[in-house]
Amino acid sequence: MEKKLWFQNSYRRNLIDMHIPDWHESFFSRFNAADYIEHLAHAHVDTAYIYANSCVGLCNWPTKTGQMHRGLKGRDILKELTSGCREKNMNVVVYINIWSKWAYENYPGWRVVSQDGRGTLEYQWNSPGRYGVCCFNSPYKDYVLALVRELCHGYDFDGLWVDMILWRSMCYCGHCKEKFFNETGYEIPATVNWGDPVWHTFIRKREEWNEAFYESIRSLALSIKPHLSISCNSSYYPKYLMGESLKYFRMSDYTGGDFESDRLSHSFECKFYNSVTKHKPFEFLNSVMEPNLREHTIMKSKEKLKILLCSTLMNNGRYGFIDAIDPAGT
Predict the structure, then answer these.
(1) What is the reported pTM?
(2) Mean pLDDT, contiguous 10-residue spans, the chain (330 residues)
(3) CATH number at residue 38
(4) Among the four 115, 151, 226, 267, which has the fewest Cβ within 10 Å?
């Protein structure tokens, strides 16, 4: 009988959000890896998703490529957590985020640029000042791959989970303009026009670029750690803006993502994931906060969490719960 992959035997998964900047000296100052791991063990977690970095772009290990979180003062909490979870017989999945406010601010030439010349820090998700997104058609791609190489050579883990591979907006940076022209002979269209063949070509190219970037991460990681499972956050349905195709979803070893939704949406999401995942079961991640991750101190009821868990299992999926750490690290 073929041996099951780790994610086919995992029923209790956890991810702790750690999108913590370092502009205040208290941030991460009280982080205790032993307490963190003990709480996971108390909850009978069998798979721990461990943050290597976040959308802030700061690394939770002594990186030679990027910028380490200053609040950690050189502590390698990634090593502490991955090793400690191993000792508790948990599967270990390393989380890496493709967005990086740090890279955005330090390398202006890497930025995603809107048609009117703005960077994402000016408008992204109606949260000016928060989300700095770089374009993977720029040298930023090489930066990300260097981080992946560090992680795969330096740490012991079972899976790599990649967050935020998507086009959150149309990019008109010089790198995209040059790449599109070199590959098609056309300029990037300035308006949405579904009757224009060039617009259709642009949409397909964005999907191809998304897929190629993800494949570059996959192939590099697997060349170093052939046993790894590799998945990405697929919580954005295929649509033209995001550039996420069905082929892109099926590149992951298992399809998964984090959602906040009503009952009908949850039912659809589970059935959609179950139909597109490369290997079953799919994964459904959901925060314990009510109504979503923005409310870090308001919890869903136990009854609601049980309903989400059981509904996911009934649809052939595996459930993982998301909590968020306090900025101080507690």
Answers:
(1) 0.96
(2) 80 96 97 98 98 98 98 98 98 98 98 96 86 97 99 98 93 98 98 97 97 98 98 82 90 92 88 94 94 85 94 95 94
(3) 3.20.20.80
(4) 226
